[in-house]
Amino acid sequence: MAEIDSVTVERSWYRYVLIAAAIVFAAVSVGFVGTILWSSLPTWLHHAGTLLGGKGWVSPGGPFGGLAMIVGTLETSLIALALAVVVGLGTSIAIVYLIPKRLRNIVATFVELLAAVPSIVYGLWGLLVLAPWMESTVNPWLNKWPFAKEIFGSPGQEFGTSLLLASIVLGIMILPTFVAISREVISVVPQDLVEASLSLGATRWQVIRGVVLPTAKIGLFGATFLALARATGETVAVALVAGGVANVQFHLLYPGTSIAAWIALTFGEAQNNEIAALMALGVLLMLLNFGLSLVSRWLVRRQRLVLARV
Amino acid sequence: MTDMTELEKPLEVGQEMRDEIRRISNHSRKRRATTSRIMITLCAVALAITAVPLLLLIFQLLQKGLPVIDKTFFTTVPSTPSLIAPNATGGVSNAIVGSIALSLYASVLAIPLGVIVGVYLAETESKLASSLRVIAQTMAGAPSILMGLFAFSFVVHDLNVGFSAIAGSFALAVLMLPVIVISTEIAVRGVPNTLREAGLALGAKSHTVSLRVVLPAAVSGIVTGAILAISRAVGETAPVLLTIGGGFINSWQPLNPVSALPLTIFENAKSEWPSQRAQVWGVALVLVAFVFVLSLSARIWASRKQQVKS
C-alpha cells in the first residue's frame, strides 16, 4: 500500500483537510476518556476505597459505596450471558442447518432488525408485562424448587422487578446480537468439512459437535465476549426492571441495580461529590467494556486466521 | 483458549477431526441417530425460545400501542392527568419534535466529520490511522451512558451551556461518529483500485480522483452507514437522559431544553396514572416504527445499489 499511497494522496489542501478531521476525531476520543476521568478525580483521590469496597450509597452527603453496583453488574450480565449463549447457539445452528434456504435470509434479517430495537422498549416491556407476570406466576413457581430460599430469597418477600428479571430481559436483549454474529461464524465453516464427515457416516449432530463447533470455536467466543460487553453496558432496561436498590444482593428475586443503571437513576438529583462518584463508576464501566471489546476483537481476528488455514 | 503456536500447525485441526471420526465409527448407529435427533430437536426448541419472546414483544407493542395513537397524539403537547381528568394525557408532539431536532443536529455534527475521517483511514497507512481505527472500533461498542457522562461534563457543565438540545446532540454525535467512520472506511476500501488508477492515469490530481471517482462510487455504503447510525441514535435513552433536560413544549432551539421519545418512555413507564402508562406503548410503537423504517431503508438502499453495480 505504501507506494500507492504516496501517489494517491500527495500534499495538497485535500490531504490537510483529511488530517485535520483525523486530529479532531482523535481529540474527541481523548476528550471522551479524559473528561470522564477528570470529573471522577475527586473520588479517586479521596474516596477510592469507599467506591470499590463500600456497601451503602447515601445521597446526597455520602458515603458512596459502589460494591452493590459492581456486584449487580456482574450478576445480571453473567446470568444473561448464560441464558443467551445456550439458547443463541441452538438458534444459530437451527438457522444455518435446519431452516430451508429460502427462509434463512428472512429469518436472519428479522434477527438483525430485532437487534436494532431500542433497549428502552425492552425495558418497558419487562416492566409492564414481564414484572407483573413474574410476581403472579413465576416467583411462586420458582420458590417451590429446592434451595429456593438460598438462591431467590424468602418466599412471599420477592418482587416483580428483581435482579432475575433484569437478567432475563438482558438475556432477551443480547440474544439477537449474539445470534447475528454466531450465525455468521457458523455459516462460514467450509462446506467441504461438513460434507466430508457426513460422507463418512457421521450423523447431523456429530457433524455439528465434532466439526462445525470446533472450527467456529474462537469466533463463538468472540461473539460471547461482545454480548457480555453489551450486557454490562446496558442502562435503561436494567434501570427499569432491576428494582433500583443499592444493596449487595445475592438473592435473585430481590431488587438490585447495576453500574450503568445506577448512573441513570441517580444522576438527575446528584450534586458535586455524588456526580464525581458516579463519574468514577463510569470509569469502572469503561475499563470493563474496553477490556471485553478488546478481547472479543482479538478472538474474531484469530477466527479469521483459523478459517484461512482450514 | 489455545496459544499462538497451535495456529502454526494447521494439521492439528485435521488430526482432531480424524480422531473424532474414528470415535464416531465405534458407536452403534442407532444410538448415534437417536442422540442426533434429540440434539437437533433441542436446537429447534432453542429457535422457538428465541422467537417467542421477541414475537410476543412485537405483537404486544402493536396491540397496546395502536389504540392510543390518534391525531392529538402527534399534534398536542403533554398535559398532566389529575383526579378530575385522569385520562388527560395530551399528546407527545414535544418528544417527536425533540427527537427529530436531536437527530438532525447530531447528524450535522457527526456525518461530515465521520465521513472525512473514514476516507482518511481508507486512503492512508500510518500509525495515526491504525490507532484511530482501533479507537473507532472501541468507541463503537462503548456503553451509551458514557457518552451522556461526557456530554454532561463537557457541554452542560464545563462549557456552561446547561441542559439543552445541543448537549444531547453532542452526546448522540459522539455515539454516531465511530459507526460512520467504520462504515465509510469499509465503503471506500470497497471501491476497486482500478477505478483510482484509471483516474490517476488520465492525469487527474489525487483529490480530484478522491472526490469525483472514489466518493461517488462509495456513496451507497456511506449513506447506509449514516442511516444506521441515525437509527441507533434516535432510540438511545441514556445519553439524552443526562443532557437534554426534558420539558413539555415543542422546541427546535439548540440551546433550550427539549424532550425525546425514549426519554418520555423512561419517565412515564413508572407513572402512577394508568392513562400515561398506556400512552407509553404508543410512544414505544412510534419509536420502533421510526427505527425499523430507517434501518430497512438503509438495507434496501444498500442492496439496490449493489445490484446496479454488478
User: How helical, in percent, are the residues of chain B?
Assistant: over 70%
Low-confidence sequence ranges of chain A: none
Rg of chain B (CA only)? 26 Å
Q: CATH superfamily membership of the largest domain in chain A, which one?
A: MetI-like
How would you sum up this structure, described in words?
The complex is a heterodimer of chains A (310) and B (310). With 310 residues, chain A is mainly α. Chain A has 2 domains: 2-44; 47-309, MetI-like (MetI-like fold). Chain A contains 13 helices and no strands. Chain A has helices spanning 2-8, 13-46, 48-53, 67-97, 101-115, 119-142, 148-152, 163-187, 191-199, 204-233, 236-241, 259-266, 272-309. In chain A, helix 2 packs across helix 13 (272-309). The two termini of chain A are 27 Å apart. Chain B is mostly helical and 310 residues long. Chain B folds into 2 domains: 4-68, no CATH class; 93-309, MetI-like fold. Chain B is built from 12 helices and no strands. Chain B has helices at 11-26, 29-65, 71-75, 93-123, 127-140, 144-158, 165-189, 193-201, 206-235, 238-241, 261-268, 274-309. In chain B, 44% of the residues are buried. Classes of the chains: A mainly alpha (310), B mainly alpha (310). Chains A and B meet through helix 1, helix 2, helix 4, helix 5 and helix 6 of A and helix 1, helix 2, helix 4, helix 5 and helix 6 of B.
Provide keyphrases for this structure.
heterodimer, A: 310 residues, mainly alpha, MetI-like fold, 13 helices, 0% strand, B: 310 residues, 74% helix, flat
Task: Tell me briefly what this model is.
The complex is a heterodimer of chains A (310) and B (310). Chain A has 310 residues and is an all-alpha fold.
Helix-strand layout with pairing:
The complex is a heterodimer of chains A (310) and B (310).
Chain A (H helix, E strand, L loop, with lengths): L1 H7 L4 H34 L1 H6 L13 H31 L3 H15 L3 H24 L5 H5 L10 H25 L3 H9 L4 H30 L2 H6 L17 H8 L5 H38 L1
Helix pairs in contact in A: 2-13, 4-8, 4-10, 5-8, 6-8, 8-10, 9-10, 10-13, 12-13
Chain B lengths: L10 H16 L2 H37 L5 H5 L17 H31 L3 H14 L3 H15 L6 H25 L3 H9 L4 H30 L2 H4 L19 H8 L5 H36 L1
Helix pairs in contact in B: 2-12, 4-7, 4-9, 4-11, 5-7, 6-7, 7-9, 8-9, 9-12, 11-12
